Amino acid sequence: MLHKLIHTREDYLLTLLRAALGVVYFAHGAQLVLGWWGGAGYAGTMQMFTHNFGIPAVFAALAILSQFLGAIGLLFGFLTRIAAFGIAVDMVVAIFLVHVPNGFFMNWYGTQQGEGFEFHLLAIAMAVVLMARGAGALSVDHAVDRGLGGARMRTRGYAHPLPHHG
Question: Which among 119, 95, 93, 123 is positioned nearest to 106, based on CA atoms?
Answer without folding.
Answer: 119
